[in-house]
Amino acid sequence: MNWNHELWVVANTAIAMVLGGLVGVEREMANRPAGFRTHMLVAGASALLLGIGMVWLTHSREIADGLEVQSDPLRLVEAVIAGVAFIGAGTIFSRGQKQTIAGITTAASLLMVAVIGVAAGLGYYVLAVGATLLTLATLTLLRWFDRIVRRRAGLPVSDEDNEDDVH
Prior knowledge:
Blueprint: H1 3-29, H2 36-64, H3 73-91, E1 93-95, E2 100-102, H4 104-121, H5 125-153
Antiparallel strand pairs: 1-2
Helix pairs in contact: 1-2, 1-4, 1-5, 2-3, 2-4, 3-4, 4-5
Protein name: Protein MgtC
Transmembrane segments: 6-25, 37-56, 76-93, 100-119, 125-145
Membrane topology: Multi-pass membrane protein
């Protein structure tokens, strides 16, 4: 087994964790149910799962000695999405007499950092960084824009009324 492949996976996992952590800092500052560490771990787990799959595929080809080993990498991505769906569901909750739902944006940000982790895990660094920047822009700039629109429409903009996509 080639240690370089494993070190590459560790490096990709670290990159994914840093990028996921950037999104997590925004969620932490907004006092949301999943913050810095959760986003880092989701992105890192995604990258690690994809990396392990790639290392295994390379290793299985080496030990198969000329036999063609086939694998569908999208199955690994599906596993990531299934795991994140479980975690994301835990961040969405109902509250109050009005049966409002909060946490949808945080659940979506967890899904996004999982996909960022997949991109980093596969070595697509430009995609991973670009997606991180787009995610941060969506979470910060659009919150600011939403507050302006709410003020102009005469709608409440307090922290309580401006929760994570409360419906």
